[in-house]
Structures are given as structure tokens and as C-alpha cells.
Amino acid sequence: MYTIVKKEELTPGVQLHVVSAPLIAKKCRPGQFVILRIDEEGERIPLTICDYNRRKGTVTIVFQTVGASTKRMAELKTGDFFADVTGPLGKPSAFITEDPEDLRNKKMLFVAGGVGTAPVYPQVKWLHQNGVDVDVIVGAKTKDLVILEDEMKAVAGNLYITTDDGSYARHGMVTKVIEELTDGGNKYDQAIVIGPMIMMKFACMLTRK
Description:
Blueprint: E1 2-11, E2 14-20, H1 22-27, E3 33-37, E4 45-53, E5 58-64, H2 68-75, E6 81-82, E7 84-89, H3 100-104, E8 108-113, H4 117-129, E9 135-140, H5 149-155, E10 158-163, E11 170-171, H6 174-183, E12 190-194, H7 197-207
Parallel strand pairs: 8-9, 8-12, 9-10, 10-11
Antiparallel strand pairs: 1-2, 1-6, 2-5, 3-4, 3-7, 4-5
Helix pairs in contact: 4-5, 6-7
């Protein structure tokens, strides 16, 4: 059984579950994911591993309620369990195999949009643990939709938060912050962008310059 040991509502419609899965926690790395089912008849749901604790044997998932299966997941309580959790799956982030010393000599930028903050976080955390400080931009439509702010503050070299409506921190899209940073003299060797498709498209167009 894969028991939910902690449940938290991050924003309306977005939840965090910490799940007991010792074998997965022992082997997973940033960038990988799991596939879970609520019960034997349930849909297979792929979700990025947002965090993991090898000592406690837990993995953390963050999901948005968008359909029948995720609605059922949102109704689960601490102490409930998933029938299946398969993983870790997928390739870990490419930089995991690089020499940490080489990574320290790079200037890296991570850009997260909305729930995309969840897969960005474990990558930034891993880099921080290996002595690599990176700049992170987190964008959301409004203040109420900003997630994992405290967690990201603890591991980012510099954290820049922006909201589309200006209700919190900076006002504007993540691309505006990218422009402000690069116009201010920051030159990045690599940018990792995760979020809504339209955000990733325009961020790629901008960083290509």
C-alpha cells in the first residue's frame, strides 16, 4: 500500500500529497515521474516527482484537479492510500550526469509557470545540494496561484516571482522578467522552462536571441 502521509491544498484546485513509497524514494532523481492508480479500476495518472525523502521513504506529488480521476485524488485524505504507484520512470534531468564543478561554472536560469513550479523545484533543490546556485523565475496568474514559494526560496540562488495581474511581487509575464535580467547584464548558458505551452513557446523564442 502507498499511504498518503500528508495532504495539503497549495492553492484552490492544486494539491500536494506526500506518499509512502520507500523503493521509489530510494532510487528516484530529479526529472523523473511516477504513474499511480487510486484503485484497481482507476485510470493510470502520470505525475512528476516534486520531491523525495530517502530517509523517510516518501515521494511528493503535486497535481491540479482537471478531470474525474484527479477529482477523486483530491478527495483522498491523510491515511488513505493508492493501489499502485509505479516508478521512478523517465530520464532524469540531463545535468544530473554532469560534473558538479562544471555546473558551478555555468549560469543557469529556471523558469516555472503555474503548476510547472512542481517539476522545477526538485531540479533546483538538487543543484543547491551540490553547491550550484541558480536564478529562478516563478510566474502565476494571481497571488493565490503561486505555489511552493517558501520551498523555492530555500534552494534558489535568486528567486523572482511575477504575477500576470500584479497582485503579488512583480507585475507581468515571466518573459518580462527574463528581459529585465538579461538587459541588466545577466548572461545565461542554459535556461530550463516548464509551464503552460504558450509560456514555454514565448520563453524559448526570447532565450533563442
